[in-house]
Structure formats: C-alpha cells, structure tokens
Specification:
The complex is a heterodimer.
Chain A (H helix, E strand, L loop, with lengths): L4 H5 L21 H27 L7 H11 L9 H36 L11 H14 L9 H21 E2 L2 E2 L1 H25 L2 H11 L8 H17 L4 H7 L3 H6 L4 H23 L5 H13 L3 H25 L8 H24 L4
Antiparallel strand pairs in A: 1-2
Helix pairs in contact in A: 2-4, 2-14, 4-9, 4-12, 4-13, 4-14, 5-6, 5-7, 5-8, 5-12, 6-7, 6-12, 9-12, 10-14, 13-14
Chain B lengths: L2 H9 L15 E12 L2 E12 L3 E5 L6 H8 L7 E6 L2 E2 L5 H5 L2 E4 L11 H7 L13 H11 L15 H14 L4 E5 L7 H16 L3 E5 L3 H7 L2 E6 L2 E6 L1 H4 L2 H8 L3 E5 L6 E5 L5
Parallel strand pairs in B: 3-8, 3-9, 6-7, 7-8
Antiparallel strand pairs in B: 1-2, 1-4, 4-5, 9-10, 11-12
Classes of the chains: A mainly alpha, B alpha/beta.
Keywords (chain B): ATP-binding, Nucleotide-binding, Translocase, Transport
Protein name (chain B): Heme ABC transporter ATP-binding protein
GO molecular function (chain B): ATP binding
C-alpha cells in the first residue's frame, strides 16, 4: 500500500527550529530550585530549634520551654535564671547531652550519606546499606569486648574510624569497575561486607564477659540513652572535622556526576578527591557509629528527600543533608523515648522501621527507571 | 615520587593558570611518534599529528583504527607508552588537571549523568575550570551562547535525564563549548544526531575554528568530514594512512584499502566538495 499523496506531500513542520534568545542574554536561571533550597534551609533551621527545645523539655520530668530557655540563657551569661536543683540537673546532665549527641550523630549520618552517594555516583549508596557502618561497628565492638583503652575517651571512636575507613576502601575497590559503580555490584558488596562484619562482631561478642555483653547489646540496637558530655566529647572532633570538610568538596562532587573522565576534563583531580571524601565519610560514620551503634537509612532517606525538593546540586545537598539528618534523628530520638514511655524504643530499630519501606520504594523506582539491573 | 611532588599533590597544585593567547596557525597540541598498547594489542603505532589553531581537523577511519585512543592521548587521558604528547608546548604530564581543563575540552562518546541535574546546570559545569579567574564574570553570557549555538536553550529548565539521546548529545557539546578552551576534542559529536543537527554541530566547529581555536573531531560520515574539515587524518590499524586537505586525501584508492570495501568519490556538481559513497551492487 502506498502512502496517500497528501501525507507524502505534507511539509514536515517538526524541523522548524524553536526561536532562540539572542546569545548574550543570561539564560533562565533555575530560580525555583534555588528559592526552594533557601526556604528549605530556613524551615529546617526553625524546625531544628523547635525540636531541640521540645526534646529538652519533654520527658518523665517535664521542664517548661520557658525554663529551658532561661537556664540556657543563664549559663550562657545572657540573663535568665537557674532552675531548681533537680530540674537543672535533668536538663544539663540528661537532656542536653542527649540533644547535642542526636544533633551530631544525625548530621554526620545525613552528610555521610550525601557524600557517599556523590562519590559512588549512585543514589543507593549509604554507609548502612553498603556495610561501612557495620565495618565501623566491628572496631567499636572489638574495643568494648577486649576492654581496649589506648586512646582514653576516644578509644571506641578511633577503633570505629580505623575499621570504618578500611571498610570504605574495601567496598570502593570491590564495587567499582571502569570508573562506574553498578547498583547490583554495590548492593551485593554491601551484603558480603555486612555478613563478614557481622561474623567479626559475633566473634567479639563470643569473647566478651557479661558486663561487656550488655554494653554491646544496647550499643548495637542504636540508642542515645546514657548520653553524657563525655560521650559528646568522644565524637565531637570526628563529627566536627567531617562536617566542616564536607561542603568543601560540593562543587567537585557536582562535576563527578558527569563521570570520572569528564570530571577530570573539567579540572578535578579525581584520585585526590576520592581519597579525601573516603576519609571524610569514614570520619563521619565513625562518629555516628561509635556512640549510637548502627542507625540505618538516615543517610539514605535524607539526601533523597532534599534532592527531590531542591535538586541534586551538592552545594546545598551536603550541608542541607547534615541539617535535615540532625533534625530527623533528633525527632526520631524524641519519638523513641516518648512513644512507649516509660520504656524506650531502640532508636536504630525505629529508624529502620521507617527507613526500610522507603528503601523498598527506592529500589523499585530505580529499577523501573533503568529497566532492570545492569 | 619526590617530596616536592607529594607536597604539591597534598596541597593542590595552583598550577600555571589560564594559557597565553594564541594566533591562528600555532601548534596547540601535538602527538609525536605516539605508541600505545592496550594489553598486547598496539592501538596506536608511531602516530604523529599536529593540532593547529584556526582549523577543523577530522579523524576518520574504520572501527578500531585508534581514533578515540588518539583523541584520548591528545586529551592527556591516557598515558602513552612511546613518543610524546605535547599540549600548549609542554608534555601532557607536565600539566595539572586544572591547567589541562583551561587548555582543552573533551566531548566523550556517551553522555552520562548520575543525578537529575537541569540542562542549564550541566552546561554551567563547563565553566568550572574558570572559577576564581577573571573570566568567571562571563559565565552567564558564555553559558547562554553555548546553549544557543547547539539549540538547547529551550531545554534549559528541564532535567538532563528527561532528554532524548540526540538532545543529551547536544547538551554535552554545549557544556564542552562553554568551557571556552583553545583546543576542542570531540569524539563522535554527530553520532546520535539527525541530519540538520549534524550540520549544525559541524558549523559550530567551523565557527570556533574561524575564531582561532583548534577543533579535532572524530566522525564516521566521510561526506561530513569532507565538507567541513580543513584537514583530515585517515587512521587505519593504529597508523596514519593519509593526512591533508579532504579533496586530496579522501581518494577512492586510499579509502577502498582502508575500509576494505570498494569506495567511490564523486565531486558535488555545484561545489566540487567530495561525496564519498560505498560501491553498492546494482539492484
């Protein structure tokens, strides 16, 4: 059958070029994303302050908002007034260390997740999923079980950092080929690393005595209970160092999204960037794992939500993930200790309960977009 | 590695900065007797080629002839095993990644992106090498011009991942144009494009060459090379089989031998530009 003459003769209008603005006029900037990032930052900061106040005030011993503010102002030398002895003690020895610890751990986890996804060029990378948290946990458990005290307060953190660093390097070496990380390789490497780390943790537990056993078990569930200023001090250097260093690499992480070679063509020393970021990720993960055990999915969920709203630019994503991570963990910890009061839910269990379904959804979506696993 | 090198690596080499201006005819990049092996297979075997300011140089040849490898060697991506690659007068390994990025831009064969950046953000990435230099204030202007040149301005606010293959290829080219380097190394920029956009891309190449830049472009369409390039280099089995102006180089004899298929070359009735056709049995 031959095509009808009319269709054959009809001019193809599709090839007409769309009118182009004259070169020299600045292109339409992605205003919406920038504006959203700005609004989001303000919103998250406000929410963080409110949640921190709530976390300091709510509990078995209620301290009204006003009293919290007054006491903090008093200690900071900005007026205010001290509270009675019990309230003062609850606030400063129980609530506030816990709030600060939640902030540090959450910020570290969120930021580590954003960095890791950037380095691997893969939105499913996360310290918990690919086994870096478990790797760091091996060091921490070993330190507890064998009663190490080489570095005083910092022993558990240092051990977590060393074994976490070794794990990131291992995963990195195993899961990359030809400058890319395939999703399937990454996840399977995570399965293997998690299994191996689990075995090592089991071995350490086998050698531990009863008191150490209890300590390990509670630590493993991922909890911020028994937060003290000493614990805050133990993770502060790692977390702060990592959080300060991270935004430094944001622009280069953007370029890395193009692939390793194009990033190099644009002036990025990819090898050095990679090593630096692996170090930062290990620092952040160690800080989080050393005090709070394995808290999964925060590093996965947080950068994803932000990317959906404000785009994938790392200049917002990296600090934004730290902020939202802190907020999420603070809120989760508040929920963990109030939902079943007077009992306390393990924080790691709570985040996994909420995070796992999200991970399922993410897997489904990634698979659908790619049309299967490469 | 010496202590110096270790320290420069750790601190980050501030490097030589933007290149000095060049004139038409200057040699901006050069391969001298370059030999390169992947495994046991020699991919480049004593290849010499100069890249001059103000001209479009087309690399043609059959699959596996070493075109992309030669381009990668000129880009300082792949270290060579024999011979030297000079970029802006210095050996390739003399330059830091940053210095190289101010001197040459590279369009890879396939455009990939890990996260859903917007088209305009992708093109803007091409400006990264100029951050902190005097040229930084031109960013908006250069990005707009690069997008207009490849006709992707209309896609600016869309995510890169939502584009078709040909559109992605043009956005990638736009990013490379925005880098504003004196040397452009383009690996099959026309592969995914329709007829109109193939012509557009080669016209952009000529435009840049007329402005004094050097453009090296790998193409499979010999007619396209003949029509737009100032010089062609025919590669076969890792060697240069012929090099020179298209009309003198793209001869039926050479092409038939190189492609191992009978080829005829006709002159265009109006312009005289060579038209290259494989000889096909009558039907």
């Amino acid at each position: 059958m031959s095509p009808s003459p009319t269709t054959a003769a009809a001019p193809r209008t599709r090839t007409a070029p769309t009118p182009q603005p004259a070169p020299g006029t600045p292109p339409v900037r992605h205003r919406t994303r920038a504006a959203r990032a700005c609004a989001l930052t303000v919103g998250m900061l406000a929410a963080l302050v409110v949640t921190a106040l709530a976390a300091a005030s709510i509990g078995a011993y209620q301290i009204p908002f006003g009293d919290v503010l007054a006491s903090v102002a008093h200690r900071a030398g900005l007026g205010g007034h001290p509270l009675d002895r019990v309230a003062e003690s609850v606030l400063w020895n129980v609530r506030l260390p816990r709030v600060v610890l939640a902030l540090l751990v959450g910020a570290s986890l969120g930021c580590a997740g954003a960095l890791m996804q950037g380095v691997f060029g893969n939105p499913l990378a996360e310290p918990g999923v690919i086994g870096v948290s478990a790797g760091a946990a091996v060091g921490a458990v070993a330190a507890i079980a064998f009663g190490l005290s080489l570095f005083g307060t910092w022993t558990v953190t240092v051990c977590a950092f060393v074994s976490g660093l070794a794990t990131v390097l291992l995963v990195y070496a195993l899961s990359r080929s030809g400058g890319r990380t395939e999703v399937i390789t990454l996840i399977l490497t995570g399965v293997a690393v998690n299994a191996f780390a689990g075995a090592l943790i089991g071995l350490s537990i086998f050698f531990a005595d009863n008191a150490q056993l209890t300590e390990i078990t509670f630590w493993q569930l991922g909890s911020l209970a028994q937060a003290t200023w000493t614990k805050v001090l133990a993770v502060l250097p790692c977390a702060v160092l990592g959080l300060i260093a991270a935004p430094w690499y944001a622009r280069r992480l953007d370029l890395l999204a193009l692939g390793e070679k194009p990033a190099r063509h644009l002036g990025v020393d990819v090898e050095r960037l990679r090593i630096a970021l692996v170090l930062v990720v290990a620092l952040l993960t160690a800080a989080a794992v050393a005090v709070a055990g394995i808290i999964t999915f925060v590093g996965l969920l947080v950068p994803h939500l932000l990317r959906m709203v404000a785009g994938p630019g790392h200049r917002f994503l990296v600090p934004g993930s730290a902020l939202l991570g802190a907020l999420v963990l603070l809120a989760a910890d508040l929920a963990a200790r109030t939902l079943a009061a007077p009992a306390e839910l393990p924080l790691g269990v709570l985040t996994a309960l909420i995070g796992s379904p999200f991970f399922f959804w993410l897997l489904r979506r990634t698979r659908r977009r790619q049309g299967g696993w490469a | 590695m010496t202590i110096d090198q270790v320290i420069t690596r750790l601190l980050g080499n501030r490097g030589a900065g933007p290149p000095a201006p060049h004139r038409t005819g200057d040699v901006l990049a050069e391969a001298r007797q370059v030999t390169l092996r992947l495994g046991d297979r020699p991919v480049l075997d004593g290849v010499s080629l100069t890249v001059r300011a103000g001209e479009v140089l087309a690399l043609v040849g059959p699959n596996g002839a070493g075109k992309s490898t030669l381009l990668a060697a000129l880009a300082a991506d792949t270290p060579v095993q024999g011979g030297t690659v000079l970029i802006d007068g210095e050996p390739a390994d003399f330059w830091s990644a940053r210095d190289l990025s101010l001197r040459r831009a590279v369009l890879p064969q396939a455009a990939a992106l890990s996260f859903p950046f917007l088209v305009e953000e992708v093109v803007r990435m091409g400006r990264a090498p100029w951050a902190g230099t005097a040229a930084e204030h031109e960013d908006d202007e250069v990005v707009a011009a690069a997008m207009a040149a490849t006709e992707v301005t209309a896609f600016a606010p869309r995510p890169f991942s939502a584009l078709s293959g040909g559109e992605k290829a043009r956005v990638a080219l736009s990013r490379v144009l925005a880098q504003r380097t004196a040397v452009l190394l383009l690996d099959e920029p026309t592969a995914a494009l329709d007829l109109r956009h193939q012509e557009l891309v080669l016209a952009v190449c000529r435009e840049r060459a007329r402005g004094g830049d050097a453009v090296v472009v790998v193409v499979h369409d010999l007619g396209l090379a003949a029509a737009h390039a100032d010089r062609v280099a025919v590669l076969a089995d890792g060697r240069i089989a012929g090099e020179g102006p298209p009309a003198a180089t793209l001869t039926p004899e050479l092409l038939s031998e190189v492609y191992q298929h009978p080829v005829e070359v006709l002159g265009h009735p109006d312009t005289g530009v060579p038209i290259v056709l494989p000889r096909r049995p009558a039907r």
